[in-house]
Amino acid sequence: MADGRGTIRRRAGLRLWLAGGWLALLALAAILAPWIAPADPLAQDLLGGRLPPIWVRGADPQYLLGTDSLGRDVLSRILWGARIALIVAALAGTATALIGATLGLLAGFLRGWVDLLISRLIDIWMAFPPVLFSILLIAVTGPGLGPIILAIVVIDWTRFARVVRAEAMAQGAMDYVASARVAGRGRIGTMLREILPNVVPTIVVLLTLEMGISVIVEAILSFVNLSISTDQPTWGGMIAEGRTSIHQAWWVLVFPLIALFLTVLSFSQLGEGLKDRFDPVLR
Amino acid sequence: MRLIRQILLRMLTTAVTLIGVAVIVFVVIRVVPGNPIAMMLPPGATDEDVLRLTALYGLDKSLPQQFLIWAGGVLHGDFGTSITSRQPVLALVLDRLPATLELSIMALVIAVLIGGVVALTGTRSRDSGIEAAIDIGNGIALSIPDFLWGLILILLFGVLLPVFNISGRITPSLPLNFVTNFYLFESILRGRPDLWLDLISHMFLPSLALAIPLSAIIGQVLKQSLKETMHLDYVTLSRTKGYGENHVILREALPNAILPTLTLVGVQFTFLIGGTVIIERLFSYEGLGNLAIDAVINRDLPLIQGIVILFAVIFTAVNLVVDLLYAVLNPRLRHG
Questions:
Q1: Which ipTM value was assigned to this complex?
Q2: Which tens digits make up the pLDDT trace of B176-188?
C-alpha cells in the first residue's frame, strides 16, 4: 500500500500547488487592479457596447475580453470584481469560523444545557433553505458589503458548529483531557489549551471551504440583484447581465464564470488537500 | 415500546424545529424597512386608508399578538393573504409546489442514476486508471455548486449546442389543459408525449444542475462502501462459488452497501430542494423558489412566511422519511 499512499500524496501536493497558485494570482490581481486594469471598470462606451474579445472578428483591440452591453471593459470588471470576491471570502469566512467554531466548541465540551440549546438551534437552522434565507436577510438589511458578510455568518455558522462540536466531544472523551483535568486545569483552560489545538486543523479545512462558499453566496446575491451597490463591479452582477444577453454576447457571461469557477474550485481543492495533509493516516 | 417512544420524541423535536423556524422568519421579516401597506395602495391614498389596511392585515398589533394570530390561522390551514396578489397564501404556494417537487424528484432520479453508475463502474475497475479518473471527476463535481453548474449547462446545451430549453417550464403555445399542476406526472399518465417531451426538454438542464453535486456524493460514498463490502467473507464466498464479478457486485455487495448511502442521500436531498430556489430563478422555472424570490423583492410578508415554513416542513418530512426507511431497511435497528 506504500505505493498507493505515495500517489495520493503526490496528487494532493499537485492539487495544493495548482489551487494555491490560482488564488495567489487572483489575490495579486485584486490588489493591483487599480494599476493593471486596462480601463475604468465603470466607464461606459455607448458606441462600443457588446464588442467581442480580441480574437473574434469585429473586436476593438482596446478591449481584450470584449465589452458588455453598456460598453464597459469585461477584463477590468473581472479584475475589480476579484477584490469584492476575495474580501467577502476572507472576512465572511473568518467571521463564520470564529462564531461557528466557538459555539461548536462550547456545545461539544461543556455538554449539558449549552449543548442542548446550541444543538436545537442547529436543527432549526438546518430546516431553512439557505439561499432563500440569505436573500431574505439581505432584503431586510439592505444591500452592501457588511450585510452580505453578516448574512453569510448568520447562515453558515452551523457548518463549523456541527463539525467542531462532534470533534470536541470525541476529544473530550480521550484520556489526555482527563489527565489534564486531574492535573488541576480548569474547564475553560482545558477547552482552550487541550481541545482547541486539536480541532484547529479541522477549522482550517472548513474555513478554506467556507471561503469558496462565500464567493458563491456573494455571486448568487449579486445575481438576484441584492449584493453590493450597482456601481461596484462584481462577478455575480456580471453573470446576471451576461445571462440576459447570452445569445448576443456570450463573453459577458463566460469570462466572469470562468473566474468564479476556478476560484471556487481552488478554495475547495485547497481545503481537500489540506484535509489530506492533516490526516495522520495519510501522513 | 422503545420504538414508540423514539417516534414520539422525534415528533416533538420536529415540532420544536418548525416552531423555531416560524418564530425566526416572523421576527426577521417584520424588521423589514419600508411599509408594504403603503406600497400596495395607489398614490393619493389617505392616511386613513393606510391605517385601515394595516389593521386589515393585523400589522397594527404587537409582535407576539401578530404571531399568535398567525399561528392560530396556520393551525386551521389559513396562512394569510398575499399582499401583492391578494390571494390566499396557501393556494398560491400549493399552486407552485408541484412544479418544484417534480423538478426536485427528477433531479434526485438523475443523481441516483449517475451516482450509481459511477460507483458501480468504479468498483468494477477498482485500483485502475478509470477509478482514479472517477475520483478526480467526483472531486470537481462536488466542489462546484448547482448555481455554477446551471450556468455552465446553459452555455453548453442552451447556447453552444442548443438542444434543450433554458427558460420556463413548458412552451406556452402548447395546449395547457392540465387538471393538476403536476404537469409532467399528468402528461405521462395521459400518454401525451407531445407534452411530456416538451416538459422534460425544459426541466432537464435545471434538474441536471441540481443533480451533479449530489451524484458525485452518491458516487463517492457508494463506491467506498462497496469497496469495503467487497472484502467481506460472504462476498469472497460467493466468488468462490463461481459467480461472475457483475453478479457479485450487484447481487451480493450492493444490498449491504446501500444503507450508508441512503442516510446521506436524505440530508443531501434537502440541500438539493433548497437549491431549487436559485436554480428556478436561473432557468425562469415557475416554481416555489421563483415565487419566493419575487415575494422577497415585493416585501410580501405573508407569502414569504408561508413559503419558508413550507420549505421547513418539506425538509423535516424528508429527514423523517429517511429515518423511517433506515429503520425498516436496517435489520439491526428493527430488532434492537
A1: 0.88
A2: 788 888 989 898 9
